[in-house]
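All the exercises in this workshop are built on plain-text protein records. A record pairs a protein's sequence with a compact description of its fold. The structure tokens are whole numbers drawn from a learned vocabulary of backbone shapes. Once this layout is familiar, the rest of the handout is easier to follow. An example says more than a description, so a record of this kind follows.
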Amino acid sequence: MHLILTKTICLDMKRFIIALMAFMFVVDGSLLAKTPSYLQKDYKNSLKITFLSWISGSTKLSYERAFSKIHQSGEMCASVIGAGHDKYHNKPKGYTMRYGHKFFLNDNVKKSLVGFYLRPEVVYSHYTYNCRVDGRRSLADETALLATFGYQYVYKRFLADFWLGGGYAFGTPAETYYHHGFELWHWFNSTNTNIALSFSIRLGFCF
């Protein structure tokens, strides 16, 4: 029952993110056309929090900086694992670190942090947790190399970032296959701890 529910939630989240990305692309073009030029300031920095990360057992904060004239940006994200509601009830304690480099696909957009993008990134997850079998503390230590596709929306100072993607993972996996930044493949009656998937939403502000 738990596996079926997990599959359903993951599929629903993926569909929601894809639909939301398409909707925001249409809305963004409409709003930019109607927004006076004095409100269309080109902000180069943003601070973001990963939406709903707290209810999955961690708190994730990100900083993004746009690089002038090349329509790219670098993004760092740090997470405190255990600072939030533990959905697996295994009391995780640790951290994740990730860096992603965004290549925005719409070079004609005047705002630096807006548009569809491709983002290669590296994610490192390190935490301990209580095993379900014997209750002892075990180590989860995983690195993932991901390629993600997303859309970032900016209106005045408000920012929303949506993405999904996947890649290769290696290390010591957790028994839940969840690493607070990506999940290892464990669906459709198959498991592959070298396949990592990532999808999420970040909200924040520009400055």
Observations:
- Strands lie at 45-50, 58-67, 72-81, 93-104, 115-130, 137-155, 158-172, 183-185, 192-206.
- The helical segments are 2-34.
- Residues 1-10, 24-33 have pLDDT under 50 and may be disordered.
